[in-house]
Amino acid sequence: MSTWIEVCDKNDIDEEDVIRFDHEGRSFAIYRSPQDSFHATDGHCTHENVHLADGLVMDDIIECPKHNGRFNYKTGQAKGAPVCINLKTYPVKVDAGRVFVQVG
Amino acid sequence: MSNRGMVIVGAGETGVRAAFALRELGYRGAVTLLGEEPHIPYERPPLSKAGGEAETVRAIVSNQSYGEAGISFRPGVRVRSIDRSSHELQLEGGENFPYERLLLATGATPRELPGLASQSRVHVLRTIEHAAAIRRHMGEGRHIAVLGGGFIGLELAAMGRMLGAAVTLIEVQPRILMRGVPEALALALQERHEAEGVVLHCGITVDTIDAGDDEVRIRLADGSDIRADALVVGIGAQPNVSLALQAGLVIDNGIAVDHHLATCDSDIFAAGDCCSFPLPIYAGRRVRLESWRNAQEQGALAAANMLGASQIFNAVPWFWSDQYDITLQVAGLADGATCHVRRTLSPQAQILFHLGDGGRLLAASGLGVGNAVARDIRLAEMMIAKAATPAPEALSDPSVKLKSML
Fold it and tell me: Family per UniProt (chain A) (predicted)?
């Protein structure tokens, strides 16, 4: 059964930004969009073992800090070379100002 | 277009990206990728880095991707000459190979020391065979000497230490990374290498190098005598221009191309390490870059222009280097900067912004653990592309987000 895991306070993530979240040996990237929605993906780029939380968020796109591979963090879609494998995404909810992710 | 198809000479990062870009752009004719090496095209950056998977070669794309994309990849092929009038390549072995349009992505070759190229204990780094040969000298109880304090030399020095070898690095310039990296960052990196146990000799010339069967002996001008199991030479690379030269193309520190990456023959393009090109953001200054990102970007743009687009190459140069747990990133060209502004992100991470006439941001260089500087360097790159003139006080204040200055 998937359960909701508490990540942080919503204000711990700036608008149009990303933070790293580690849970039970797995690592995730948690995003706050310019529209103030929250999203989660696997933490590491699918191209190489580089954490996306050091990357740049622009609109719906997270850009890997190493090779500029780009993904839509809302859908996980890889946006072209050098990345061709989509990112896995996870459901996120905000409850009473706290952010939760369902990592199942 | 005719059925002659698109032919790419050189199966490194540039050539591979161009081949796939041709397909991504909808080209349906023949695409042929000719590589000199016997291997499936592989990533070169890991060859000088002590990553966990360093022993395994990382393919740029999987073997089956070529077939799936309808790209004919031919390894182990040397092109002897280009006949521009008949639009044909002459391959070694006698085969003639026709092209509609041609991309030269022939890369660069490491400079070697005269008289030492064939010595078994003297190495350069470009290929997986080179990397394997160097790695054999990098275990505990070994001593490796590195000539050249550029990115390759420093990365190999770090790799040597991480794998337990003693490392001596010799740089004839007064400090490491004289070309393209500001002194403050170079010195911080230099300190780290010394803290890791690398013995550094900077600002000194080499008198003699004797490469024997059992060791390499290096005598420096100050009388120092270095005995090592192997010497790695990292003193730069020269563009591979012989094919272009034979074909009568213009050469100017590499195969000279215009801002569309076309050579003086409009059916022949060149991209990546082998070419020099004008960069509009720096007033059309002609540069040649040896970097992974440049290879990718030029490969993709050359492909588009081979298909008739007229895209102008105007990307901000970008480099990175990994040494120990530190990454150095540089965006832009700092030459001509008159003012340098420091932003301290943490005790272990700093960025220098290089401003030119009129306060224009020309370049930014950052050094930090992991990818600590990556985001700000990326934002700086965007500002450089826009010819932004950010306020120095804001650049130096880490509480002011660079994003707000875009």
Answer: Belongs to the bacterial ring-hydroxylating dioxygenase ferredoxin component family.
Question: Pick from B233, B255, B277: which residue ends a domain?
Answer: B233
Shortest distance between the Cα of B406 and any Cα of chain A, in A, equals 12
User: What residues of chain A lie within 8 A of the CB of B374, using their CB?
Assistant: 54-56, 65-66
Across the interface, which of B24, B371, B379 has its CB nearest the CB of A66? B371
Residue B379 sits in which domain range? Answer: 325-405
Tokens of residue A14, six digits: 């700036």
**Residue B167 CA from chain centroid, whole number:** 23
Residue B359 DSSP class: G
ipTM here: 0.83
Tell me whether residues B374 and A54 touch, CB distance under 8 A. Answer: yes
> Contact, B46 vs B322, CB < 8 A?
no
Predicted confidence (pLDDT) per residue in B350-405, tens digit? 999 999 999 999 999 999 999 999 999 999 999 999 999 999 999 999 999 998 88
Q: How far is CA A14 from CA A51, B75, B375, in A?
A: 18, 49, 14
Which tokens go with B327? 């990454």
Residue B316 maps to a domain: no
